[in-house]
Amino acid sequence: MANRTRRDLSNPRIKKIVKAQISQSRNTLHHRSPVKKAGNSRSNSWILYLFLGIFAGTVVFWQWGHIQAILAGAWESNPIRKKLITVEEEPAVASPSSSPVSPATEQPQTPPPVPVQQAAIQPVARRIQVEVLNGCGVNGLAETLTRYLRRQNIDVVSQGNYKHFQVPETRILDRIGNRDRAQIVADILGVPTEQIKSQVDPNLQLDATIIIGHDYRMLKPFMK
Q1: Which of 10, 19, 148, 170 has the highest CB neighbour count under 10 A?
Q2: Dihedral angle, C-alpha 155, 161, 162, 166, nearest 10 °
Q3: Residue 220 neighbours by CB distance under 10 Å
Q4: What average pLDDT does the segment 65-79 reach?
Q5: d(Cα 176, Cα 11) in Å, to the nearest integer?
Q6: Which of 213, 23, 220 has its CA nearest to residue 136?
Q7: 210 contacts 221 by C-beta, under 8 angstroms
Q8: pTM, rounded to two decimals
């Protein structure tokens, strides 16, 4: 048996060497068995949970129709459902009421609608239509009188010469049997009422015929 040398730990030099050896042994053990970090363990657990969740969702998605059929069959055979259906089908029996039935409230009668009276459509007044004839022989009288009448909103459909030029007084001939329209023309020209004559002729399709006489200077268009 080999003789062991007893170390004198009271020697400061030997004590320092022993401490260095112990520290070196601890460092060697620390490098050989490293401690796993807590963060890596948590990360691995989260990945595992995520994988399990995806797997479970996939299974439910593909088997959803089958799951619905199972749930529907379970509900059909559930006794609670049958009791609910029976209660709904039983007619409700009205319990006798102790309070007297109040008479029906009278509804206020709605007055009948008042008929709306539409305004009568007034026909548009037709313009007075006349013809102008020169009965005195002075050139341009018929044309001058035509321009004047048109400015007064009288429709002159034709102008020309009368069958002779010996007409002493201007006169207006009523052609439709409506002296009012002939009177309007007489007032515009300044012709006296007694010079309005009635000679109805529907074929002319005129209200009046104006025959200019030798008194034309007394008419409004020719007064100076």
Answers
A1: 170
A2: 130
A3: 13
A4: 67
A5: 163
A6: 213
A7: no
A8: 0.47
Query: For 129-222, CATH number?
Result: 3.30.70
Asked whether the beta carbons of 197 and 203 are under 8 A apart, the reply is no
CA distance 208 to 189: 13
CA–CA separation, 126 vs 207, rounded Å? 11
Label residue 23 by pLDDT band (50, 70, 90).
confident
**Continuous H helices in 78-223:** 79-89, 141-151, 179-189
Q: Express each pLDDT in 123-168 by its tens digit.
A: 677 899 999 999 999 999 999 999 999 999 999 999 999 999 999 9
User: Helix, strand or coil for residue 205?
Assistant: coil
Number of Cβ within 10 Å of residue 165's Cβ equals 14
Task: Please answer whether residues 132 and 216 qualify as being in contact, where contact means their C-beta atoms are separated by less than 8 angstroms.
Answer: no
The two tokens of residue 3 are 């003789």
Structural tokens at position 106:
């009278």
Tokens of 191: 């012709």
What is the crossing angle of helices 179-189 and 141-151, to 10°?
110
Q: Break the chain into its structural domains and give their ranges.
A: 43-84, 129-222
DSSP 139: T
